[in-house]
Amino acid sequence: MSRPIRIALTKGRLEKDTVGLLESMGFDCTSVREKGRKLILPVPDAELEVVLAKANDVITYVEHGVCDMGVVGKDTIMEMKGKFFELIDLGFGRCRFALAAKKGSDFYSGYGIKTIATKYPNVARSFFEKKGMDTDIIKIEGSVELAPILGLADGIVDIVETGTTLKENGLEVIEDVAPISARLIVNTVSLKMRQAEIEKLTKLIEEKLK
Predict the structure, then answer these.
(1) Most buried one in 19, 100, 108, 163, CB count within 10 A?
(2) Alpha carbon separation from 167 to 93, 103, 105, 171 (Å, rounded)
C-alpha cells in the first residue's frame, strides 16, 4: 500500500491557517494540533501526512519529491523559485513586498547606483532590473529597517503588513513590489503519478475557498 499524500506546511501562521482550512473541510487534525515535538503527523481521514518545516525547506521537500504538496508563502516562491506546480492561491497570509526608504527622501532622484538592503535579494534584483535601474543589493538577515537608518542603504525591499514598523523607524513605503499570500504547490512527478488523489483534495479546497 502506498503512503498517504504527504503535505509540507510552513511552521507558524501558515501551518495554523492550513490546519484551520482542513478542519473546516471536515477533517480531524487533532494530531497536528497536539503535535508536541513531532514533525510528521497523520491526518487519516484526509489520507494525508503533514510535515512541518521552515518555508525554504517546504519548497526543497516538494521539489525533490519527498513531499507531494506544500503550503508556502508567495514571498518564498519568488525568492527561491524551483521546479514545481503552483496550484492554488489559498488567500490567507496576505501581505506585500514593498520598497521603503527614509521618510521624505526622494528615492528616485539622481542617477547614481542605489544601495538596497533586503532579506530577499532575488526579488529585489528582479524588481529593479525590470525598472532598468542599477542597484547594489546587500543581504540582511535581521531587522532590515536598520540599514537606511545607519546609512548602509538608500532603501529596503521587505515584507509589509501594516507598515507600523516602518513608521516607527522613520521609513515610508515608496512603492509596492508584489502581493503575497499562501500558495499550494505540488511536485511535478506526484501530480502525474498520484493525479486522482491530488485532484480530489484540491477540488475540495477550491470548493471551500469559493
Answers:
(1) 100
(2) 22, 8, 14, 5
The yes-or-no verdict on residue 66 having pLDDT over 80 is yes
Report which of 101, 100, 136 is spatially closest to residue 115, judged by C-alpha positions.
136
Within the chain, where are the H helices? 13-24, 30-33, 55-63, 74-80, 121-131, 146-149, 164-168, 188-193, 195-209
Closest CA to 169 of 107, 119, 100, 120: 100
Nearest alpha carbon to residue 188 among 54, 79, 87: 87
Note the pLDDT tens digit of each residue in 90-103: 999 999 999 999 99
pLDDT band at 12 (very low <50, low <70, confident <90, very high): very high
Dihedral angle sign, alpha carbons of residues 150, 156, 162, 163: positive
Average pLDDT, whole number, for the chain?
96
- How much is the average pLDDT of 177-187? 98
What CATH fold (topology level) applies to the domain 95-179? D-Maltodextrin-Binding Protein; domain 2 (3.40.190)
Residue 1, pLDDT > 60, answer no
Taking each helix axis as running N to C, give the angle between helix 13-24 and helix 195-209, from 0 to 180 degrees, rounded to the nearest 10. 90
Instruction: Classify domain 5-93+181-209 by CATH architecture.
Output: 3-Layer(aba) Sandwich (3.40)
